[in-house]
């Protein structure tokens, strides 16, 4: 009589665990990169809300004293920004940076800056010093 084998051998189980470990070692860093990209976009969205009010101040010719976080409806910090700052418009209508955020998030992006600059002609430009264009939202340029 032959004996039937039931179940898995120890070597088969070790091979499965090794394969799962290899896949996890690839997937976790890739996942963290996408988390970082999302956090940069969230930080940009947090400061984007202030552009409309800022632009209204510029068009109305408001004095520099109104260009505050409270004035444009932003908080000093958000879930995505450890610090948000606002700079008053220059006499020529430009501001670099007009609204900026120090990003908080994964180690690769923590402490990096994302900001909006206002040009003399009234256009807004997103700029950032994040380590790679992978993390930067579409249309953002390097500082």
TrEMBL record:
GO cellular component assignments: pilus
Asked if the record carries the keyword Membrane, the reply is: yes
- Please list the GO biological process terms of this entry: cell adhesion
Xref: SUPFAM superfamilies:
Pili subunits
Transmembrane regions listed in the UniProt entry: 7-32
InterPro entries with a match to the protein in the record: N_methyl_site, Pilin, Pilin-like
**Alphabetized PROSITE patterns for the sequence:** PROKAR_NTER_METHYL
**Pfam families noted in UniProt:** N_methyl, Pilin
Q: Which domain of life is it from?
A: Bacteria
Going by the UniProt record, its keywords in alphabetical order are: Fimbrium, Membrane, Methylation, Transmembrane, Transmembrane helix
Similarity annotation:
Belongs to the N-Me-Phe pilin family.
NCBIfam families named among the record's database cross-references: IV_pilin_GFxxxE
Q: What is the official name of this protein in its record?
A: Prepilin-type cleavage/methylation domain-containing protein
């Amino acid at each position: 009589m032959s004996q039937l084998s039931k179940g898995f051998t120890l070597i088969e189980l070790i091979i499965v665990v090794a394969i799962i470990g290899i896949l996890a070692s690839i997937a976790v860093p890739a996942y963290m990169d996408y988390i970082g990209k999302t956090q940069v976009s969230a930080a940009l969205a947090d400061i984007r809300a202030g552009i409309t009010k800022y632009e209204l101040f510029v068009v109305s010719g408001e004095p520099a004293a109104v260009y505050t976080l409270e004035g444009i409806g932003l908080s000093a910090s958000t879930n995505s920004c450890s610090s948000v700052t606002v700079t008053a418009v220059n006499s020529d209508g430009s501001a670099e940076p007009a609204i900026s955020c120090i990003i908080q998030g994964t180690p690769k992006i923590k402490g990096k800056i994302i900001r909006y600059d206002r040009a003399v002609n009234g256009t807004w430009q997103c700029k950032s010093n994040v380590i790679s264009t992978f993390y930067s939202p579409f249309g953002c340029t390097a500082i």
